[in-house]
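Anyone else keep sequences and structure tokens together like this?

Example one:
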Amino acid sequence: MKPSDYLNILKESRPWILLLCINDLFFIFLAWTAYPETFRLLVGIMIVFSIASIILGMLYAWKGKENQDKVFYDFFRQPSWEHEHELIKTIGELHKEKVKVVSHMEDVPIVSDKKALQFIFTQIFVNAAKYSNEKIDSFIWLKTGFDSSNNRYYLRIWDNGMGVLNSDLPFHFRQRIYRR
């Protein structure tokens, strides 16, 4: 794992760590008032358990991140057979309509489930073929990368199609497909 991965795991674990620290402060206050003679022993044990809880929480967040990343890599390396036919068919339609697909794909994790990614790419290709303009050279440009200013990975998709009406945008970006 890279050092930036540890920072991301810490950021994802921040609410758990904050809650644990608030709980620890409350415990220290209670131990100090109720058991002044064994205060040091109680606080020492609490600190050991708190550190262990933070490490376990970070491992839990890291494991969840690994599972999310696996979906992206499985999709591109081993697509499912049931949806692969649809993707291949739409790519064939793109060639018939002379729509060029330009991709600059870096090896970055995209967080989504397999069916959602297949649905997204299929819809992009189907719409590009359906709404291509014969008067211009149609294209779709796919790019992945890391935005260091926002500390996020991204998948950008551009085309020179006719676009989507502003009134239709809420229907395209549903919470179940796109997440922050």
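And example two:
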Amino acid sequence: MKNKKHIQKSSRINPGLFYTKDTVTIPWNSGYSITRNRLVVPDGEKSNICCTCGTRYSVLNYRENHCRICLDDRQYVKESGQQWTSFNTLVESHT
């Protein structure tokens, strides 16, 4: 049985996010397969999430080191300065 991938847009998640459905065969029982949902961001490799406030910028509105929220004097930014992360890095660090 081949792994099947279906990408579908869901109205219950934020714009630009997709669920990927993978059919996976369980190694110890080759006759049994499961379907799992995984959240995918098409531009997930780009570092466009602010580490300080968590705001995610689209590729069109993203300018490195220019988070609109953190540029406000009232917002706390670490002494090390503005830092960015990607969606994929965030997922890996929280799973």
